[in-house]
Write a structure and sequence with these properties.
With 170 residues, the chain is α+β, with helices and mostly antiparallel strands. Helix content is 13%, strand content 32%. The chain has a single domain (3-159), classed as MM3350-like (Structural Genomics Hypothetical 15.5 Kd Protein In mrcA-pckA Intergenic Region, Chain A, Roll). An eight-stranded mixed beta sheet has the order 5-4-3-6-7-1-2-8, with helices on one face. The longest helix has 12 residues, at 29-40. The protein is globular.
């Protein structure tokens, strides 16, 4: 039975946006890219995947088109690389740069691995919350009611702001 990777996708444009995906470990990055386009309902676009460290800093690049010049530093094409070749441990990360000019991206983290369910079809989206950020216009991304989960949670502490009677001497 094939191995399945479970990824969580987040966006820095909408704190409420979450997608969870289950995909085969031997899926190429090109096929993963096509699956993500379909899931997000985006049109074909120039994209890159990057491996990322624990601080989400970009490392190796994988491009839609072969842009290699033969050097060791040149990016590899997505069609030649499978997820299993670059993802090895829980919490390994990918950055899916879908807007090269606007430097807009999604952040994918491996949250689990398991043996494929013979009754299930992969790849698949297993969880979705909030609207997908607009592919072309980042200003259309967050609806007012979406806001930030962080801001919502911290709103409970507003009662403590502005206590001018506090004396530093105590």
């Amino acid at each position: 039975m094939p191995m399945i990777f479970r990824f969580r996708m987040l966006s820095d444009e909408n704190d409420r946006f979450v997608r969870d995906y289950e995909v085969p470990y031997d899926m190429t990055l090109l096929d993963f890219h096509r699956f993500l386009l379909e899931s997000l309902e985006y049109e074909e676009c120039m994209t890159s995947f990057f491996t990322a460290d624990e601080r989400w800093e970009k490392q190796r690049e994988f491009t839609l088109m072969d842009m290699g010049d033969g050097s060791a530093e040149s990016p590899e094409p997505m069609e030649r690389v499978t997820l299993g070749q670059i993802i090895h441990n829980r919490r390994d990360r990918l950055i899916y740069l879908f807007d090269l000019f606007g430097d807009r991206a999604y952040y994918l983290e491996l949250t689990g691995t398991f043996t494929a369910d013979p009754e299930a079809r992969y790849p698949r989206e297993i969880f979705a919350e909030a609207e997908v950020p607009d592919q072309y216009d980042p200003s259309k991304t967050v609806a007012e009611e979406d806001g930030s989960i962080f801001d919502e949670m911290m709103g409970d502490f507003n009662d403590f702001e502005g206590d001018d009677d506090y004396d530093d001497a105590y």
